[in-house]
Amino acid sequence: MHFFELAEPASLQEAIGLLGDSGGRPVAGGTAVMLMMKTGVFQPERLVSLRKIESQYSQIRLDSEGNLRLGAMTPLRRIERSADVAAVAPVVTAAMRRLSNVRVRNVATLGGHLAHGDPHLDLPPVLIALNASLVVASPSGERTMPVEDLFRGYLETALAPDELIAEVIVPANPDQRAAYLKHTTRSAEDWPALGIAVALTLNGGTVETARVAIGAATDTPRRLTSVETMLIGNPHNDAVLQTTGDATAGEAEVHSDARGSAAYKRELIRVFTARAIRQAVEGDRA
Ligand SMILES: Cc1cc2nc3c(=O)[nH]c(=O)nc-3n(C[C@H](O)[C@H](O)[C@H](O)COP(=O)(O)OP(=O)(O)OC[C@H]3O[C@@H](n4cnc5c(N)ncnc54)[C@H](O)[C@@H]3O)c2cc1C
User: What is the pTM of this model?
Assistant: First the structure.
């Protein structure tokens, strides 16, 4: 048994002071941290619990411009049940229902989810498609970064050891439509073999803006920019959807894992790109 100290700071600033050179590792819901400690992936001398920091970091609110602001310590279950989230970003609400099980969602937090950096997570492609950003706090103040810039490699993020995700901002975009498709090869709420998110705006029958992001097939969640380029300015008819699916073939280096071979995942990306675009076009707005 590896012994560690458990610190329970009462403020975000105090928590940050216990990280970095001070040797602490943040723990929020603990659903990923505990598994990694049990399997010996890391053995911190000190865990810094974020449970007792100011309640503002576990709140959901709309700012004066209607943007959705999600405190990083908010449990996923609360996000799933939030009327504000359902109003501004219903694709997030929908994605939650098949994200693991309710026991995990009850304790796992949004900040812990993103900072975990596993490329198979469900929410990163959704938030990347919605052009969401993070507020990151450190001893020197706060910085904002797009969610798509967070991921650097397998379980690797752009966060410094003494930085904490404080908030996630989803911009209001009432004209946007979005969809997230999760394909699993075991149970419905299992880790995805592929997750793909699409967010777009239409002008009549033409696509005006488009963001498409995938998870669970590449070393980090990432955008499919060639698909976005093919969509923008074009009609969203079957011929275009067929071509966009085919355009994904060479764009990203796809990896095999326990839920499917690289060849299988490439085929999933081809087929599910068109399906996700169609669902976004035909479904409710984002
Ligand atoms: C059985 C099981 C099934 C799962 N299935 C799925 C699934 O289908 N889809 C899916 O997307 N996910 C799945 N997950 C993963 C789950 O989403 C993550 O474990 C969870 O979101 C992590 O959140 P947490 O608050 O528990 O993080 P923690 O375990 O507390 O922390 C995770 C990481 O983030 C760091 N950290 C925590 N908070 C912050 C912060 N605010 N700022 C900076 N760093 C921070 C920690 O130091 C650690 O490195 C599953 C997990 C389990 C246990």
Answer: 0.97
